[in-house]
Specification:
Strand 5 (about 150), helix 6 (about 160-165) and strand 6 (about 185) form a beta-alpha-beta unit. This protein has helices at about 20-30, 65-70, 80-90, 100-115, 130-145, 160-165, 200-220, 245-255, 280-285, 325-360, 360-365, 395-405, 430-445, and strands at about 45-50, 50-55, 60-65, 120-125, 150, 185, 225-230, 260-265, 290, 305-310, 370-375, 380-385, 410, 410-415, 420. The protein is built from 13 helices and 15 strands. By secondary structure, it is an alpha/beta fold. It has a domain at about 80-340: 3-Layer(aba) Sandwich (Aspartate Aminotransferase, domain 2), CATH 3.40.640.10. The chain starts with 19 loop residues before the first helix and ends with a helix. Bound molecules: pyridoxal-5'-phosphate. The site of pyridoxal-5'-phosphate has 14 residues, from helix 5.
Length: about 450
């Protein structure tokens, strides 16, 4: 049980932050953990229940980060816990790469049946978003016999050498690690908030796609050498940017004209977060390959690379992973999938619309809020120095994130200057109100 105060579903801060136990853990952490981890504030989590995370000092926080968009069904959802307990008492590991087990087949069938476009699919299971993208890259090269890729500025696709070559989010993620794999070209991702003056969002999207054809393909990159265009339907780490409606369709036509595969990275925006199972469904576009991870198993490590059946034609031994599709992770995923389809995708759509409605007048009320945007429970609030120049305000964004933490609300930044709201898909209206009220309070303090 969480510590007792009137509302167990809302935050309760008992100590100065970090509290004494948290301070002690952080001190030990600093001596032995990789300094490459980025911690925005000193939360030392001890347990989680629903949307609440309790720290080691008994402080309760409302988790609007969901462990970076992972705890889709909330922390320790009883049905997920039960599925994990049941499976782990039966079979923890057998390696689906060398042997068969039924729940891996069952989950692949479900993913295949619900994937956008209604075309037959095959599924490769890995352990992380990065691995899902790595598999997508290898499969695209193998299937097409081509070696080049187009990705987008601002994209985050992971940190292993292949996936990192696609990532163009923050220079620190690449610094010192080159050379990365050659032949990856980065095009502009259309950001409706930062489009050129006097140009509609749709025309801006068209211009970004035309630049691939008219500039990249003419000057540098023969299109028949391109294996895949890799894109996040909604940019996550790049700042929770929702492209104009026509962007992905235009990209799909371009890809089709040149025999290039279209890969959607739905690691952050998929699995119901946007109020539909797949973000692609909002745009009516069917990717050839797409990647899923994060929220897929409510916190157990699992990812899926889902391709049109005819594309996943590599032979036995071409690609595999010892742990990928682990039976316990799959059991958690099956329970998660069931909860999403039964109620949580609808809740994400409803609560997302409610929060966006409450945030809509923030740019009018707060001079430092440049833009509010979102789909379902993938919501970004862009913090600027002033609305006229749209100059980014990363330090102010960081202060707001810390102020929210001190008030019991866990949020994270995205991109250089946006606050992301990516709560579990189970949030209630009271929890949504607490989050918006807290953000309001923080913005007033920094007005
Ligand atoms: C869109 C996207 N792709 C890939 C990744 C990499 O996932 P992982 O950290 O599980 O390797 C992330 C992680 O943030 C992501 O947001």
């Amino acid at each position: 049980m969480l510590s007792d105060t009137a509302r167990l579903d809302l935050p309760h801060i008992l100590t100065a932050l970090p509290g004494p136990r948290a301070r002690a853990v952080i001190e030990r952490d600093q001596a032995v953990l990789s300094p490459s981890y980025t911690r925005s504030y000193p939360l030392v989590a001890s347990r989680g229940e629903g949307v609440i995370v309790e720290d080691v000092d008994g402080n309760r926080f409302l988790d609007f980060s969901a462990g970076i968009a992972v705890a889709s069904t909330g922390h320790c959802h009883p049905e997920v816990v039960e599925a994990i307990e049941r499976q782990s008492a039966r079979l923890i590991h057998m390696s689906g790469t060398d042997f068969y087990y039924e729940n891996m087949v069952e989950f692949a069938e479900k993913l295949s049946a619900t994937a956008p476009g209604g075309v037959p699919r095959r599924v490769y299971f890995g352990n992380s978003g990065t691995e899902a993208m790595e598999a997508a890259m290898k499969l695209a090269r193998f299937h097409t016999g081509r070696d080049k890729f187009i990705a987008f500025r601002g994209a985050f696709h992971g940190r292993t050498m292949g996936a990192l070559s696609l990532t163009a989010s923050k220079a620190v993620q690449r610094k010192g690690f080159g050379p990365l794999i050659p032949g990856v070209f980065h095009a502009h991702y259309p950001d409706p908030y930062r489009r050129p003056a006097g140009v509609s969002a749709e025309d801006h999207a068209m211009a970004c796609v035309h630049a691939i054809e008219e500039d990249l393909f003419r000057r540098m990159l023969p299109p028949d050498e391109v294996a895949a265009i890799v894109v996040e339907p909604i940019q996550g780490e790049g700042g929770y940017i929702i492209p104009p409606k026509n962007f992905l369709g235009e990209l799909a036509s371009l890809a089709e004209r040149h025999g290039i595969l279209l890969v959607f990275d739905e690691v952050q925006c998929g699995m119901g977060r946007t109020g539909k199972l797949w973000a692609a469904e909002h745009f009516g576009v069917t990717p050839d390959i797409f990647a899923s991870a994060k929220g897929i198993a409510s916190g157990l490590p699992l990812s899926a690379t889902i391709a049109r059946a005819g594309i996943m034609n590599w032979p036995a031994g071409a690609h595999a992973s010892t742990f990928g599709g682990n039976p316990v992770a799959i059991a958690a995923a099956l329970a998660t999938f069931d909860l999403l389809q039964r109620e949580l995708i609808a809740n994400a759509a409803g609560m997302g619309a409610y929060i966006l409605d409450r945030l809509r007048d923030f740019p009018r009320r707060f001079p430092h809020v440049g833009d509010v945007r979102g789909l379902g429970l993938m919501i970004g609030i862009e913090i600027v120095h002033d609305q006229e120049s749209k100059e980014r305000a990363p330090e102010l964004r960081d202060r707001l994130v810390t102020l929210a933490f001190e008030r019991g609300l866990l949020v994270l930044g995205a991109g250089r200057n946006a606050i992301r709201l990516s709560p579990p898909l189970i949030i209630t209206r009271d929890q949504a109100d607490f989050a918006v009220d807290t953000l309001e309070e923080c913005l007033k303090l920094e007005a």
